[in-house]
Each structure stands twice: as structure tokens, then as C-alpha cells.
Amino acid sequence: MPTHFSVLPLFTILFMWASGACASDKVNNAEGDSSILPQIEVFDTKALNLIDPNANISIRSKGYGWSEGPLWIEQGQYLLFSDIRSNQIFKFHPQTGTSVYLAPAGATGWVEGDYAEGPNGLLLSPDGQLVIMQQGDRRIAVMDAPLTTPQPKFVTLAAEYQGKRLNSPNDGVYDSKGNLYFSDPPYGLKKGMDDSRKQLPFQGIYLLKANGELVLLDDSVNLPNGVVLTADGKMLIVSVSDPKHARWIAYDVQADGTIVNKRMFYDASDLVGKKGEQGLPDGFALHSSGLIFATGPGGVWLFEQTGKVLAKIRTGQISSNCALTSDEKTLYITTPHYLMSVSLR
To answer: What angle do CA 88, 334, 116 make, to 5 degrees?
Structure first.
């Protein structure tokens, strides 16, 4: 299992659609559906089954405080994504552009000058309702309105563990039984682990069962972030956004939903702080082939579920999360200030 890019790739594909400009310059000057200078590194030819070597990396929308949680809505053919800083959820439609979808969306008790932030991860419940990791309100909630007529009305799914407030739920994934795995780092608290409002002495990885029972799975991970299940539901992968030990970890999922056999999936510690490797392990998108897109240092990584790195899409930005369209022809990528997209095969 690889732990870092210690060997040269089989080959590297570099595509340039503009001369004399670096990626960050192109991003800062871009307007509308503009293309940036992409760099696609391919480490294994299997990646070419998904990645189109002629594809642009395009800016689809911009001007956010910190965009996150992209979620493709099949019914309606549009993308939802969060802006944590402005406490809103936006809607991007490929034909009509971006509009505000829901506000407020994640911190109903916002206090001026407080560090309460808005929504983070977004997902659909088994019955098709919008579930929001409300980082600001320190809970997981479901929007109490249809997707087609959104309203800032919420029903709490989880807010406490053993009578103590959660930290700030970040990301989640449902299994085939309707159980929800989620991470609970302290990002929504101004002083993190030292914040006076923090009630739990740890940062948890949890299982919210379909019957409402909340089970703590692991309390030993510092700064857990994105979560994803493999296609067969037998492995849970968690990104760890710890600058002192940036990595992805994996667990085996047992029949009752609990996890065992914690292990390293991929160690990216040696990349932190290096030029061109901005960002930390964060969100995921699972392809039907079983391959996994994961945002991390430098952009979006493409993994096999063995932990082998097949490719890396360098966005020139910190990349916070990603999502696939239902036909898997487009990968959307959120960065702090931009919504980007890449066409796939």
C-alpha cells in the first residue's frame, strides 16, 4: 500500500489552455464558466477510464466564503452546495447558473460576532429529504420541506451524545439500511478543542441508526472530516484533516454497522506545507466503478479501494469536497471561493 508519492508516476499529462499564467492567476481572473490551467497527473492507466484527457477544469460560480458539501439532485438536474461562512445553501443549474436555495441553512441561532457557522455536508435521506450537517447549530437536521420548495424549517436528527452537545457535525454517508455514518470535529467552535462551549472531550466518528440510536464508533481521531463507504458497504474511509498527520484511514464494517480493524488507507503527512499541495484530506465522491474521488493536498485524488492512487486533478486551490452527477459525466469540486467542474469519460 503506498504511503506517499515516493516514486515517479508512470506518466504525467499536462494540459495548458493558456500561456504565461499560473493556475491561481487564471482562477482569480476567471469570469463565469471559465477554464483554468489544469494539471492532471496520471499514475496508472486505469484512471483514463474515468478522466478525460481533453477535459477542462472550469469555474462555474464564485464569490463564496467557504463552499462545501456538493450534492447532485437527480430530480431537477442541479447541484446544491453549502457556503459555510454566509450560512446559505446555493443551487447551481448547468443551464441557468447559481441562485440562493436556502437561507438561513445551518445556524438558526446566529449571534453577531460569534463563530457559529452555517451548513457543511449535504446528503439525501433514504426517503429523499435534504439532510444538513448544521455545523453552526451543532446538529444534524433534515429540512422540513420538499426539495422543490425549500424553507428554513428543520427537524433535528442528532444533536447530543449521552446528554452532551455534539461539536459540529461535518460530513456523513448513508448505508443501504438507512444508517448514517458521520464525523464530528470541532471546526464550528471558535477555539476548537479548547472552546468553552465544547462539552465532549473528544471528536467522534458516529453511527446514527435508522431507529434513532446514536452509537459512538471511534473517539480517538483528531480532526475527522469526510466519510465514505465503499460500493459494497464493507469498508468505511474517513479523511483526517490534521496538519500534523494528514491521512485517510479505513475500517471494516461489521454486520451490525459497527467498525473494526482501523488502519491507514493513505498517509499524506509528507505533503503538508509543500508548494502546490495546498489543502488537507476532506470530502469524497464514490464512482459506480468502485473508484473513489477524494479531495486532499493539491486537488482531487483518484483512489482504488486498496489505497492505490491512480491520478490527481490539480485545481490550483484548496479543494474541500466533490460530487458526481448521476450520469457520472461531470465531477463538481468545491473550493473556498469557487465551484468548479471537470468533465469525465
So the answer is: 40
In angstroms, the CA 56 to CA 286 distance is: 21
The cell 461531470 sits on which residue? 330
Residue 13: the pLDDT is 31
Is residue 11 predicted with pLDDT exceeding 90?
no
296 CB neighbour count, 10 Å cutoff: 27
C-alpha cell at 11: 506518466
Asked which of 99-103, 115-119, 183-187 is least confident by mean pLDDT, the reply is 115-119
Average pLDDT rounded to a whole number, residues 15-22: 26
State yes or no: cis peptide before 104, omega within 30 of 0: yes
57-62 and 160-161 as β-strands: parallel, antiparallel, unpaired? unpaired
CA neighbor of 222 nearest in space, from 245, 206, 199: 245
Q: How far is CA 210 from the centre of its chain?
A: 23
- Secondary structure class of 49 (helix, strand, coil): helix
